[in-house]
Specification:
Structural class: alpha/beta
Largest sheet: 6 strands, mixed
Shape: globular
Helix content: 40-55%
CATH class of the largest domain: Alpha Beta
CATH topology of the largest domain: Nucleotidyltransferase, domain 5
Length: 463
């Protein structure tokens, strides 16, 4: 038998003990471990957990650090724990005294942590980093809650604002695929209910699933879809879903039980499918592509289409964010699953800036959609300049004034770049959490890690 082991390969028994391994003090994880205010972060973390109830909790620093590693490197829940168990630098970052090759906790706990921590916890983490960079903001004389009304806070700094969408990780929706998915799921429910009704229902309700599947594939695989054949197939699938829903309702009526005979997962799907069917039938009858609160995903019914009008991506699917950028920090003022006009965020974003820094911005750099009369009047009252063309007769401007206005409006692109960093480097455009609250936590955690890089840069650490 041939031995393929190299004679120069160091044997495992001769390899130095990892517990005695000398870590590089300039490593980013080592530097960040000493930089972060762990005690304050743990205090914020523990507000969401009971000290007296429940099983023994996981070390809070492990959880916070695991979230940072996950969103910084874009790893899955399983992969992040595997990576930590293999990396002594990351274990030092999490505060472990010795190298531990075992996973710190189960990957399934990530979902529970997202539910319990929520969006507010990571938003508070980001605000803490801003306050540490601007220590004067926490003083009594500058805090908004300490105003005496004698004088307004002096304006200082620049605030850049914009809106974006944190895309959910879902397949691009189309009516035909959605209705067919509803058909398949209702057929599964019929199978489950029939198992409980075998004695009283001698024959399973007809679903014609094989015929429906062939009809769907025949239309879906066409390279070009003519409207007549598409509507014909869609009508057939809608009729299948309607028939299946009537069967399910009849079967539920015949099952004598105090609790719902289907598991919560299917119960939730049934409610969503009822609404989806009503929407699709209404749009089919009216020959329309629009309806209020349109469902684009059965598994994530909270996701709505956001018409953004961007080249190559006119519609996005996810939560709409009202974002602010100042001193390199990107924070969100609004997180909405429904479309809204972001012009209404300006005043709240300026107030949040004042809360975090102790003063209003001297200049707000924003897109034209924010240049409403209400926002213009409010900014004048607060002594804030707005990157907007003045209304009324045009005044002659000097070359310096024109150049200054162009530069100030062009600086608004900085927030576009930061949003691009969050989407491309930290996958803000691929939110893989399934539930509404866990998705909101995912978004806030991503922005926190983005701000953590800015916080580290102030201390001269590259993260």
């Amino acid at each position: 038998m041939i031995d393929y082991t190299s004679q120069h390969q160091t044997q495992f028994e001769e390899f130095s003990n990892l517990c005695q391994l000398q870590l590089d003090p300039t490593n980013r994880w080592v530097q960040l471990a000493h930089l972060l205010p762990w005690d304050r972060m743990v205090g914020i973390y523990q507000k969401n957990f009971s000290v007296d109830m429940g099983a023994k909790s996981v070390n809070p620093r492990w959880v916070i650090g695991a979230f940072i590693i996950k969103h910084k490197l874009g790893l899955s829940d399983e992969e992040v724990l595997q990576t930590i168990s293999e990396n002594p630098y990351m274990q030092y970052f999490l505060g472990l005294a010795n190298f531990n090759p075992d996973p710190l906790f189960s990957p399934s706990l990530f979902v529970q942590f997202r539910k319990q921590l929520g969006e507010d916890t990571f938003s508070e983490f980001s605000q803490m980093l801003v306050a540490m960079t601007n220590p004067s903001a926490s003083s009594d004389e500058n805090h908004p809650g300490k105003d005496t009304g004698e004088a307004k806070a002096k304006t200082k700094g620049k605030l850049k604002i914009d809106a974006s969408v944190a895309d959910q990780y879902i397949s691009y929706p189309n009516d035909l695929a959605l209705v067919n998915e509803a058909r398949v799921k209702t057929e599964t429910m019929i199978d489950l209910l029939y198992e409980q009704l075998r004695d009283s229902w001698p024959v399973k309700p007809r679903t014609y699933r094989k015929v429906a599947h062939r009809r769907y594939l025949g239309q879906a695989k066409k390279k070009k879809h003519d409207i007549a054949s598409l509507r014909k197939t869609l009508r057939y699938l809608l009729n299948c879903v309607e028939r299946n829903l009537s069967h399910i309702d009849a079967m539920l009526d015949d099952i004598a039980t105090d609790r719902f005979p289907l598991a919560h997962k299917y119960q939730r799907q049934l409610w969503v499918i009822h609404t989806l069917y009503d929407q699709q039938r209404s749009m089919y009858d009216q020959r329309s592509n629009q309806c209020p609160d349109r469902i684009v995903s059965i598994s994530q019914p909270h996701v709505r289409p956001m018409v953004r009008g961007k080249p190559g991506k006119p519609v996005e699917f996810g939560a709409k964010l009202g974002l602010s950028l100042f001193d390199g920090y990107l924070t969100h003022q609004t997180l909405s699953w429904d479309a809204y006009n972001e012009a209404g965020d300006l005043q709240a974003q300026a107030e949040t800036y004042r809360l975090l820094t102790g003063h209003y911005p001297s200049l707000i750099q924003c897109d034209k959609i924010y240049h409403t009369n209400e926002n213009r009047s409010w900014c004048r009252e607060q002594g804030i300049r707005l990157t907007a063309e003045s209304k009324g007769p045009k005044k002659k401007k000097t070359a310096y004034q024109k150049r200054k206005e162009r530069l100030e409006y062009a600086e608004r692109n900085h927030i576009e770049g930061r949003i691009g960093n969050a989407k491309q480097a930290l996958t803000l455009d691929q939110i893989k959490a399934k539930l509404r609250d866990t998705s909101e936590t995912w978004i806030a955690a991503t922005l926190f890690v983005l701000n953590l890089a800015t916080f580290a840069a102030y201390a001269g650490v590259t993260f």
